[in-house]
Each structure stands twice: as C-alpha cells, then as structure tokens.
Amino acid sequence: MRNERTPGQTSDYCGFDLVMADNLPTPSVVVADRGYDADSIRKSMEKREVLPIIPMRKSRKMRVGVDRSLYRLRNLVERCFDQFENARRVATLYDRTAESFLGFVDITSIRLWLRHLST
Q1: Where are the beta strands (DSSP E) in the chain?
Q2: What are the residues whose beta carbons fall under 8 Å from the beta carbon of 34, sequence distance 6 or more?
Q3: Which of 53, 51, 48, 75 is nearest to 65 (CA)?
Q4: How crowded is residue 22: how many other Cβ atoms within 10 Å of its Cβ?
Q5: How far apart are CA 111 and CA 73, in angstroms?
Q6: 58: which DSSP letter?
Q7: Residue 15: DSSP 8-state
Q8: How is the chain split into domains, by residue range?
Q9: C-alpha dihedral, 1 to 22 to 70 to 105, nearest 10°
Q10: Considering the entire predicted model, what is its pTM?
Q11: Helices and strands in the chain: count of H runs, count of E runs
C-alpha cells in the first residue's frame, strides 16, 4: 500500500504518477473513477500492460468501454475511504506535516484492520 498527499485543490489525475511509482509491483488492473479518465493515464497504463477500468468522462469524444463487473469492486475501496473519514483527525487534516498525517492514516488503517479481525 502506498499513501501520498497532494494539495487539496489538486485534481486526482495529477497524483496518479505518485501512486503508480516504479518501485511498486505492477498491477494487472487499475480500477478508478472518472477523475482519472485522461489520455496520458491511459497511455501510461498501456505501456505498463495494465488494464484500465475507468469510466469515460461525458466530454470524451473517443468512446471507451468498461467492464462493469470489475468496476463494481471499486465500491469496496470507497467504503474503506468512508471509514477513514469517520476518523476525525484524518478527515479534518489537523496535522501540519505530511509525515504526521500519513502516520495517523497508518494508525487508522491498523485500527480498522483490528476491528475487522475481531468481527
């Protein structure tokens, strides 16, 4: 897992290269929302031989299909982010440094994982 923090006004696709760094294992599929529908991202994934499961933006001229059964798995990730937002310190960005913030993201992840194991 990799965590990167970008400024709040930064669009999702600007942080794509940070998350898809070369030092991580190459995924076979990337499931993302419309915010990641950019030609540069699709070309980058094509070079890495990764299947993009990204719905197209309404303004896209060249139509692109999406495997809906794989895209439904994105709901699991969205529910995980919803759990992070329940942690007040993570949701409101109280911390002044990125290291401190990412440390509390890790602590929240561990807390959620332990809660999941106990159920």
Answers
A1: 29-31, 51-53
A2: 54, 55, 56, 57
A3: 53
A4: 7
A5: 23
A6: T
A7: G
A8: 8-67, 73-119
A9: 20
A10: 0.62
A11: 6, 2
